[in-house]
Specification:
The complex is a heterotrimer of chains A (about 350), B (about 325) and C (about 325). Chain A is of the alpha/beta class and about 350 residues long. Helices cover about 35% and strands about 25% of the residues of chain A. In chain A, helix 5 crosses helix 6, helix 5 packs parallel to helix 8 and helix 6 crosses helix 8. The radius of gyration of chain A is 21 Å and the shape is globular.
Chain lengths: ~350, ~325, ~325
Amino acid sequence: MTPSTRTPSSEADNDYNLNVMNDTVLEVSGLKTWFYTRRGIVKAVNGVDFALKKGECLCLVGESGCGKSVTALSILRLFDSPPGKIVEGRVLYGGVDLATCPTAYLRQVRGKDIAMVFQNAQSALNPVFTVGDQILEQINTHGGLSHSEAVSKAKSLLEEMRIPEAERALRMYPHQMSGGMKQRAMIAMSLSCDPTILIADEPTTAVDVTIRAQIISILHELKARRNMSIIFITHDLSLVSEIGDRAAVVYAGKVVEVAPVETILKKPAHPYTVGLISCLPDISTDAERLPSIPGSAPNPIDVPAGCPFHPRCPKVMDICRTVEPEFCQLSPVQATACHLYDTGVKG
Amino acid sequence: MSSKVLQVKELKKYFRVTAGLIPRPLGEIKAVDGVSLEIGQSEVLGLVGESGCGKSTLGRTILRLEQPTGGEIIFNGMDVAALNKQELRKLRGKMQIIFQDPDSSLDPRVTVGGSIEEALIVHGVADPAERAGRVAALMEKVGLEAGFAERYPHEFSGGQKQRIGIARALAMDPQLVIADEPVSALDVSVQAQILNLMMDIRDRERLAYLFVSHDLSIVKYMSDRVAVMYLGKIVELAEKEEFFKNPLHPYTEALLSAISSLRPAGKERIILRGDVPSPLNPPSGCRFHTRCHRVMPICPQVEPEFKQHAPGHFAACHLYP
Amino acid sequence: MTEATKAPRRISSGFNSRLAGYYWERLKKNRLSLVGLGFIALLALLGIFGPLFAQDPQHTDFNVKNLPPLGFSIQESIYDIKTDSFTTTTLPGRPDHPLGTDSKGRDMLAMLISGSRISLLVGLLATGIAIFLGTLIGVLAAYAGGWVDNVLMRFTDIMMTFPFFLLLVLIVFILGPSLTIIVAVIGLTGWTGAARLIRSEALSLRTRDFITASKALGASDSRVIFNHMIPNVISLVIIMATLSIPGVIMAEAALSFIGMGDPMSTSWGTILNTGQHTMDTAWWVAVEPGIMLFLTVLSFNFLGDGLRDAFDPHSII
């Protein structure tokens, strides 16, 4: 049950076999995506490691600007290529490194093996086409079905999303649907080719609490029924506890901690995770004052030397200012990048 | 019991929707449809609801930024709805508002000192040196260096901009501040900073808040009492402890159950059917009946009365006759 | 944000040198717009100080007519009655008329300089009138809303369809051609586009929280309009003005070209007009003002683009 085994020198084939044995479907190691702009190099993703197992939901947690969305885009290389570039690292899927593979192969993977759902359904859906047309377009991109088969598949997808009157919904335009329905239609679209992995980028942020509950329960069902793996990106820790199996905490473009959700909430290791959790107004702490983390997140153009969290860390040590901590295993299930825990066991 | 800072009675705000060059009425959006509530001195009333429920409109109508269609607003004993322009302007300093979006709440072409100073200018503080002094004091009160008064909003972070917004609201020593989702647009770690600041100010200045939010865990932290709004009406109102321990209205139950940390022990997660109905065409009888998981035959027929069911605990639901 | 500074004695609330500096830094990064700005500045300097150094553009001297620019020469063929043949002479340019002369012997350089004055003046004045009217109507319509907005916008629609060219011809017919008329007509009919755009910008401004905040503080309507709405619209106004000026200059040139302008003036359009007839014998008379127009319009466009990017808070510069 080891989450991430980083073995930089092994062959891709070896890794593939390892993955199959470990039930890992996606492995991201040492990923760095930088954007070269006139103002400087924006190090949006600066060292991300995690592994996704079959049928599990891994939450990428972090505040705004920490690089979690860019990480998701990097998996499928969906960012603009100048100015962005994957400068280092690997994204292993099915034995192939998606970071360096040819675009033609990547296009086959997109949508069919790995699908993505975005935060703002309003802007992700094309306003001049009906929802049905858009789902059909997705189905037809990866081919194989006759028109009537595709239509009935689209209808059953909408029904799976618990959208009432699916026939009618197929003919509706995005602006005729409510926010929650649009979000669900977008999820339906992403499922149209039965992907193995679903990347959901803050799908519930723009949506009301009660609709959020609907969408979370839909995602639960998807996980169970289709044995689908989900990468769930969010800034909301309470959501993590509802849907996640494991969580990876991201700060300034680096993953600083990976652990099962229970562990993250009860026994967080990294000081940032500790701070983040204690900031939450929660039923159990009826505290007089909410603890908060002083300062604010660094600008990705200007990341501090050493550990990026050191200017705000309550437990900062001298070494933190100069040396970047390595990602190491604290236990078989928990790994973190922090000098407090330099166990010497490399993760 | 200290006197009430704010009393709202059967407040209504309807928007007429028209179409065409010569306006043809299509209907009315009953954004606020008969809301009654009270806020005591130094009290924080949390107002919870989802988008479209009218909570923002309620805040603005109370401040008479929108003209009420009906009902009464009584601030410190004065009927706000009946005031003329002059009197209203004098009152403006005492009832203030903090906005959700730090980027749009400050004029980008005005220095932050200028934004804070505006209230002082409008209310006749003529001496520029005195204004500068008061602005400096206000900035320090919200945790910002006074020397930053010359800077422009784009030079500050989201959390700092919210602080400036708070300083602006405090300029004329208000007694009531309507906080319209003040931390929703901020990062989690910064949210805590701003909430702490708001509580400190409440304690020091003896300020009352109408704290509007969709985030129940924040409301739980900040409020003394909590009210829930749905499609223009208040459906439940209670003291905080009572509210979270013993919710009466099914909608409240659903809201609480959507957040795992607030879900009462042992209960299942409640998923509501369907989407929020359009405020142009609210459902008959109890407006919540189309999504209610405990709906009864009487619900679509008759609108339930907003009544007290336990000391200080009000709800509008046929489950509790 | 780390230097601690003392609290100021007076609050400077609106536009101050800090903000100007910020925008200037942003504008500077766009090389093309700096080039445009430089050219316009040069033109302005020429227009102001040029006439002090150049010759009198109105001075006609038929002895030096049709001289080419310095460095060029032109062949003239003159028919000699006595010999019933053409004698061809080559006429070179002269340093005292570096850009040549026209068919009446007027110095091209002097005419171009005085023309630059006219073009810039006309451009600025007519644009100024148009933008001023447009801003007033646009902001008023947006702020007042309701029937005021309706009436003002329908009025704008009607003015938009107004055939300004016909109006111009009519007035010129009655009063004779003149630049003042051109400026007035362009100004009084050109405000409609500005009004529309500024109104829509003001409408979106009206819903922004800081406007509500001002009202919540008790600010009067006029304070909201003049201290908040107008300053936020100004950047759009400046951009629109900068990008309208070339259109106005071209309009004036075109009108002068077809004869609506004062034939005695030396606006570039008028020079072009006289030059079009002598394209084969004195091509420079048409080409030079043409080049000037081209460069001027280009410069304003570059500058306008740069300003638009500099003022837009969302563009990353």
